[in-house]
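Dear support,

Our group has been running a series of protein-ligand predictions, and this particular one with magnesium ion is the one our PI (initials K.S.) wants archived with full inputs and outputs. We had some confusion internally about which version of the output was final, so please treat the block below as the authoritative record. The input we submitted was:
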Amino acid sequence: MESIQNIKQRFEIIGNDPKLNRAVEKAIQVAPTDISVLVTGESGVGKESIPKIIHSLSHRKHGKYIAVNCGAIPEGTIDSELFGHEKGSFTGATGARDGYFQVADGGTIFLDEVGELPLTTQVRLLRVLENGEFIKVGSSQVQKTNVRIVAATNVNMFDAIEKGKFREDLYYRLSTVEIGLPPLRERKDDIHLLFRKFASDFAHKYKMPAIKLADEAIKYLLNYRWSGNIRQLRNAAEQISVLETKREISLATLMSYLPQEGSNLPSVIKDKKNDSDFSTERDILYKVLFDMKSDLNDLKKLTLELMKNGVSKVQDINPNLIKKIYGQQEDTETAFEEEPRINVIPNRTENLQEEFDEEEDDSNYLFAETVEEEEVLKLEQKEIELIKNSLERYK
Ligand SMILES: Nc1ncnc2c1ncn2[C@@H]1O[C@H](COP(=O)(O)OP(=O)(O)OP(=O)(O)O)[C@@H](O)[C@H]1O
Ligand SMILES: [Mg+2]
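Confirmed final output from the archive:
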C-alpha cells in the first residue's frame, strides 16, 4: 500500500494535519474495494482530490473517471446526462445519447454536490447503487453498468434529509464510508505552510520574487476564519502576489485582502443560519398573505350569501365559514352588526350574483373591487381583523 506521504505528494496535497492524513489514509484503504464513498467538508477544503486518489488506486484505474457537478446541471437535463436518452424522448432529442453511467462502465463516477440532485434522479441513482441497473430517458429497456460511485457534498445531509430534499435511503447507500475533510481554521499548523506554497507557486507563475508575511500578518493569518478554506487562502495569496509591489506583506496589507467578520463584503460561504431564517420569515409572510386571500374570498362568499338571504339565515347555514373567518372567540353577532347595510343596494346585488355565477374564480377580483367601490364593507377594519387572525394562527 502506498504511504500517505507519497499519495499527498502525487496529488499535491499540502499539509500534515492528523485529520487530513486520516482522510487520505481512508481513501487509500477504501480504494481497492467497490464501496461507495461520501466525501464531506466545507467548500474549498479540497474534497476533489479524494475521488481521484480512490480511482487511481483502484482496479478501475484504467477505466474512465468522470466527475459530474450535480449542482451545475439543470434539473430538466440531468437524468439524460447521467443515464442517457432515446431519440425523440423529449423536444430536441434528435438522436440517442449514452449517459455517464454507461460511458463510465468499468470506471468511477464522482458525483460532486450530490445534495443538489433532484428527487426523481435520486430514485434512479438508488437503483444503480443497489443493482447496477438503469433505464435511459424515454426507454423501457433496463441496462446494466458497473460503476463505482464517489460522491461529495458541502451541505449538511441530515438537514437536507429532514427538509425532504434528500432521500435517507440514498444517503446511507452513498455513505457506506464517509471521508470528512477538516476546515482550514481547524488546521492551524497547515495554514502558513499552504500560504508559503501558494506564494512560491505564484512567484514562479508570474516570474517575480515570492511574497513574505510579516510576523503580525502571520499571526492574523493563523487566526482568520477562512470561511472559503483553502480556495480562499489560495486566492488571497494570488491577489497579493500580483497586486502588491512590495514583497514583504504587512498586517494592514494582508487585512485589506481579507473580508473582516461582520463586514458587508461577500463571503464565499453563505451564512446558512441567516439564509434559513430569511426563508422562514418569507414563508410565514407568504402563508399570512395566502391566508388573507383565502379569508377575503370566504368573506366575499359570505357577503354574497348575506345579500341573497339576510343575516339570520346566513348565520344558520354557514356556521363553519363564519367560524373560519372570524375565529372561534369572536362574537359573530357583533361581527355582523354592520352587515344589514348591504341590503340597501338590491340591484347591485343581482348583478353581482350573475357575475359570481358566471365566472366564480375570476369574478372574485371583480367582486372585491365592487365592494370597495360601494364602501359597503369597512374593508380597512376587516383587513386589520384578517391580519390579526392570520397572525394569531401563525404565531
Ligand atoms: N491540501 C491542499 N493542498 C494544496 N491545495 C489544496 C489542498 N486542498 C485544496 N487545495 C486547493 O484548493 C482549491 C479548492 O479545493 P477543491 O476544489 O477540492 O475544494 P472542494 O472541497 O471541492 O470545494 P467545493 O465544495 O466548493 O467544491 C483547489 O484549487 C485545490 O487545488
Ligand atoms: Mg468541489
